[in-house]
Specification:
Layout: H1 12-29, H2 33-39, H3 44-52, H4 71-82, H5 91-104, H6 107-118, E1 124-127, E2 143-147, E3 150-160, E4 168-174, E5 184-190, E6 197-202, E7 214-224, H7 236-242, H8 244-272, E8 274-275, E9 278-279, H9 284-313, H10 318-341, H11 353-361, H12 371-380
Parallel strand pairs: 1-4
Antiparallel strand pairs: 2-3, 3-7, 4-5, 6-7, 8-9
Helix pairs in contact: 1-4, 4-8, 5-6, 8-9, 8-10, 8-11, 9-10, 10-11, 10-12
Length: 382
C-alpha cells in the first residue's frame, strides 16, 4: 500500500492551507528549481510572490503582518517543499528570524521589520558561524562597539543561509568581550545601502545548490542602537537558546517530509523499472529494503507529530526537540542512502530527485546544532 499518513494535527483549515501551499510550490518553485540550482539562488521575485500570497510569516500574528496561523501552518510549508526536494528557498531560516523578532524584539522592531518580512520585501538571515567559531558560539569574535547612538560592527561570518539575498541579518556579536557569553548580543543589520557591509562568495556546497549560502563581512558597519535585539546588551545567548526548540523541530519536520517524498518516488521507480524480466519491486531484497524504510518513516511520523502537538501546547522542551532533530536527521541520511541504492546508476545522477535529496540531507546533521551537540543536550537532561 502507498505510505500515506493522516497527521494528528490536521483539520479543515490546515488542509485548505496545504492545498494553497502545494499549488504555490508546484507552480512557482518547482519549474524554476533547475535554473536556481545552476544560478545558486532563487531570486527576490520568488520571495515577493510568496509574500503576496501570504505564505511568509505563517505563524506570525496578523497584527505584525503575518498570516495569524500556528506552527502547523509553517510545518506544512516546510513539508511541501521538502518532499519535493526543494531546498533553495529557506523559509525555515526566514521564519526563525521572524520568531526572534516576535519573541525578543521591541515593539518598534516588530513594527519595523515583521510586516516587510511577511511581504517578502526583506529576506531574513541569522549570522552566527564564523571562520573560527561554529558550535562554540562563545568563540564569536565579531564585535559591536557602541559609539554614541550607533554600534560599529567589525568581523565576518560564514555558511550563512539566505546570505546572498538577505535584506535583514541578525548578527550574533560581542558587545562586551570581557563578559564571555554574557557579553553576547544580537544586532539587526538592514543590508540595503549599508556602507561597510559586503556579501562574499556564494559557497560551493555538497548539496542545496539552489540555496544562497554566503560569506558576510562587516567592516565598520554603523547600526543605530535601536537595532539591538530587545534593546538590552548581553541578552544574545538567552535569545538564541529560547528559540532552539522551534528551530530544531523544523529540521525534524523537514527530515521526515523528505523521507516520505523519497519513499514515494522510489516505490514508483521500483514498480516500473524492469530487471531480469520483472519489476525491481518483485525482488525480495527490494521488498525488504522498502519495508525497513517504511517502518522507520512511520515511526518518525508518530514522533514528529507528537512533538508538533507539544510545541502547539507550549510543552516542547529543548531535549525533546533535540531528539527530533537528532533522530530525524540521522534517520533521513540512512533511509535516503538505502533508497538511493534501489535506483542503481540513476540514483547517482543529479537529475534524479533522490540523488539531490541525498546530497541535500547531509547538512541536516550539522546545522542547527550538530548531532554530537544534540546528544550532549539530551544526555544532560537524563
Amino acid at each position: 500500500m502507498p505510505l500515506t499518513f493522516q497527521r494528528s494535527w490536521n483539520d479543515a483549515d490546515v488542509d485548505a492551507w496545504r492545498d494553497t501551499v502545494s499549488r504555490f510550490v508546484e507552480q512557482e518553485i518547482l519549474p524554476g528549481d533547475a535554473e536556481a540550482r545552476r544560478r545558486g539562488h532563487v531570486g527576490h521575485a520568488l520571495w515577493r510572490r510568496a509574500g503576496e500570497l501570504g505564505l511568509l510569516g505563517a505563524d506570525i500574528p496578523e497584527a505584525w503582518g503575518g498570516a495569524g496561523g500556528d506552527f502547523r501552518h509553517q510545518a506544512v510549508l516546510e513539508e511541501e517543499m521538502a518532499r519535493r526536494g526543494l531546498t533553495g528557498m529557506s523559509t525555515s531560516v526566514h521564519a526563525i528570524v521572524m520568531h526572534y523578532l516576535l519573541n525578543h524584539g521591541t515593539e518598534a522592531q516588530k513594527q519595523r521589520w515583521l510586516p516587510r518580512m511577511a511581504r517578502g520585501e526583506l529576506v531574513g538571515a541569522i549570522a552566527m558561524t564564523e571562520p573560527g567559531a561554529g558550535s562554540d558560539l562563545q568563540g564569536v569574535r565579531t564585535r559591536a562597539e557602541r559609539q554614541g547612538e550607533h554600534y560599529v560592527l567589525q568581523g565576518s561570518k560564514t555558511y550563512i543561509t539566505n546570505g546572498f539575498l538577505a535584506g535583514l541579518v541578525l548578527v550574533v556579536c560581542k558587545t562586551d568581550p570581557a563578559q564571555g557569553a554574557k557579553g553576547t548580543s544580537i544586532v539587526a543589520v538592514e543590508t540595503g545601502d549599508c556602507p561597510g557591509y559586503q556579501v562574499g562568495r556564494r559557497l560551493d556546497k555538497l548539496g542545496m545548490h539552489a540555496q544562497d549560502t554566503a560569506e558576510l563581512f562587516f567592516d565598520g558597519v554603523r547600526v543605530p542602537v535601536d537595532h539591538l535585539l530587545g534593546g538590552r546588551e548581553g541578552q544574545g545567548f538567552y535569545q538564541l537558546m529560547g528559540d532552539l526548540p522551534y528551530e530544531r523541530l523544523i529540521i525534524g519536520v523537514v527530515a521526515q517530509a523528505c523521507m516520505e517524498g523519497a519513499f514515494e518516488a522510489t516505490l514508483a521507480w521500483t514498480r516500473e523499472r524492469q530487471a531480469f524480466g520483472q519489476p525491481l519491486a518483485a525482488f525480495q531484497n527490494t521488498r525488504f529494503k522498502l519495508a525497513e524504510a517504511a517502518t522507520q518513516i512511520a515511526a518518525g511520523r508518530a514522533f514528529i507529530d507528537r512533538c508538533i502537538a507539544q510545541l502547539l501546547a507550549g510543552t516542547l522542551d529543548t531535549a525533546t526537540a533535540s531528539m527530533a532533530k537528532l533522530w530525524g536527521s540521522e534517520t533521513q541520511c540512512r533511509v535516503l542512502d538505502e533508497l538511493l541504492q534501489l535506483w542503481g546508476g540513476a540514483g547517482y545522477m543529479q537529475e534524479t530527485l533522490v540523488a539531490r535529496m541525498y546530497a541535500d540531507a547531509r547538512v541536516q546533521r550539522i546545522y542547527g546544532g550538530t548531532s554530537e551537540i544534540m546528544k550532549e543536550v539530551i544526555a544532560r537532561a537524563l
